């Protein structure tokens, strides 16, 4: 069965998703929903995708037969589109962050229960080759128990979002949510929900533009930093450092090889990574050129639909829980207090 996809929002992320679907034989984009049809057509031509473009999801659902609604809109518009898709009993893939409030998340959970369809949130680090390799390394106990983990995600000020929505705090909730939720989600995925969080942050016109968080766990030190308040040409870096009882792992997206490990007192060696052959992005925007993690997550979602199985990674519950944790971080940054979870 060919999974027919309506792609809602054809900006930067929509372009990435379209290119990933092009590599998945069982999926086919049948319509695009975008409020800027000329721009959407232009991007479609650039990546070789010519399908009908609608001004609203309701219109697209009325005109086109589809199995999946993939939501790549600005975060403040996610809930409306997701609820419309679920009311039409469609499977939904929603980009991260899930939404802008826990009240919305609760509404979405209720709607999914009623629709009985499949749902995933684009928490792509769970599918990112280096982060998957690290997760396997932790589970293998090759270097013993994990003692500490520090993660960074740093970027030049985003200049590529439609209507500059990423820099509008009420819409994107700033780097502390839009960018840094990747690492929050990965920490929760790897170690479970922390007992509490303590955060400090830099605030500017775009909301919290750089956040520093300590996640409180028993017997392990975890901290993460995320910010996009560097100059526009600064570039992008994601990195992490982990220390184990008998070894270490370091990842840095700006280095080749990007990930290496040590056991005992031995010299560092590259950690083998399984990267999909999904190619490079042709759109030439945003932080990442490799489609790896995006391809992996959409490949997994389409596989689940093909086998009529419920996704177990980056589920609605997972997306909502990571949002709850990141909101606790914002509360901590605002109050200067430790926030219990």
Question: How does this model look, in words?
Answer:
This protein has 341 residues and is an alpha/beta fold. It folds into two domains: 3-124, Rossmann fold (3-Layer(aba) Sandwich), CATH 3.40.50; 125-287 and 314-340, Dihydrodipicolinate Reductase, domain 2, CATH 3.30.360. Helix content is 35%, strand content 27%. The protein contains eleven helices and 15 strands. It has helices spanning 12-21, 37-47, 57-63, 78-87, 102-115, 129-140, 169-172, 174-178, 181-191, 292-306, 316-335, and strands at 3-8, 27-33, 53-54, 68-71, 91-94, 119-121, 146-156, 196-204, 207-217, 220-230, 236-244, 247-252, 259-263, 269-270, 339-340. It has a nine-stranded mixed sheet with strand order 14-13-12-11-7-10-9-8-15. Strands 3-2-1-4-5-6 form a six-stranded parallel sheet, with helices on both faces. Helix 4 (78-87) runs parallel beside helix 5 (102-115), helix 5 (102-115) runs antiparallel to helix 11 (316-335) and helix 9 (181-191) packs across helix 11 (316-335). The relative contact order is 0.17. The model is unreliable at 283-288 (pLDDT under 50).
Task: Tag the structure with descriptive keywords.
single chain; 341 residues; alpha/beta; Rossmann fold; Dihydrodipicolinate Reductase, domain 2; nine-stranded mixed beta sheet; 11 helices; 15 strands; 27% strand; globular
CATH superfamily of the largest domain: Dihydrodipicolinate Reductase, domain 2
CATH class of the largest domain: Alpha Beta
Helix count, DSSP H or I runs of 4 or more residues? 11
Report the structural category: alpha/beta
* Helix-strand string: EHEHEHEHEHEHEHHHEEEEEEEHHE
Unreliable stretches (pLDDT < 50, length at least 5) are 283-288
Question: Strand count, sense and closure of the main sheet?
Answer: 9 strands, mixed
Tell me what portion of residues adopts beta-strand conformation: 25-35%
Instruction: Report the C-alpha radius of gyration, rounded.
Output: 20 Å
Give the overall shape.
globular
Strand order across the largest sheet:
14-13-12-11-7-10-9-8-15
CATH level-two architecture of the largest domain = 2-Layer Sandwich
Number of domain units: 2
Q: Care to count the β-strands?
A: 15
Helix content: 25-40%
The CATH topology name of the largest domain reads Dihydrodipicolinate Reductase, domain 2
Mean pLDDT: 95
- Ends apart, CA distance between termini: 43 Å
């Amino acid at each position: 069965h060919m999974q027919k996809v309506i792609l809602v929002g054809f900006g930067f992320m929509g372009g990435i998703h379209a290119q990933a679907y092009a590599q998945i034989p069982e999926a086919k984009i049948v319509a695009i929903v975008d409020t800027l049809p000329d721009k959407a057509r232009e991007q479609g031509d650039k990546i070789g995708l010519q399908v009908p473009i609608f001004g609203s999801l309701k219109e697209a659902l009325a005109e086109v037969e589809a199995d999946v609604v993939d939501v790549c809109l600005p975060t403040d518009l996610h809930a409306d589109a997701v609820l419309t898709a679920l009311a039409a009993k469609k499977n939904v893939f929603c980009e991260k962050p899930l939404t802008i409030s826990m009240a919305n998340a609760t509404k979405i959970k209720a709607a999914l229960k009623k629709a009985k369809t499949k749902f995933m949130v684009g928490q792509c680090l769970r599918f990112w080759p280096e982060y998957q390799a690290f997760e396997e390394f932790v589970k293998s106990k090759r270097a013993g128990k994990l003692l500490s983990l520090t993660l960074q995600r740093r970027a030049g000020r985003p200049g590529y979002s439609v209507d500059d929505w990423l820099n509008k705090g009420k819409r994107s909730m700033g780097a502390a949510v839009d960018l840094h939720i990747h690492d929050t989600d990965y920490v929760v995925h790897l170690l479970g929900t922390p007992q509490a969080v303590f955060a400090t942050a830099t605030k500017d016109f775009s909301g919290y533009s750089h956040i520093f968080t300590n996640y409180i766990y028993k017997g392990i030190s975890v901290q993460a930093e995320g910010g996009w308040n560097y100059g526009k040409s600064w570039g992008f870096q994601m990195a992490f450092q982990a220390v184990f009882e008998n070894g270490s792992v370091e990842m840095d997206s700006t280095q080749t090889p990007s990930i290496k490990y040590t056991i005992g007192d031995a010299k560092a060696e590259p950690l083998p990574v399984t990267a999909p052959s999904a190619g490079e992005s042709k759109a030439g925007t945003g932080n990442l050129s490799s489609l790896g993690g995006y391809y992996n997550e959409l490949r997994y979602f389409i596989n689940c639909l093909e086998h009529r199985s419920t996704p177990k990674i980056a589920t609605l519950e997972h997306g909502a829980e990571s949002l709850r944790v990141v909101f606790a971080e914002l509360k901590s940054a605002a109050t200067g207090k430790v926030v219990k979870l």
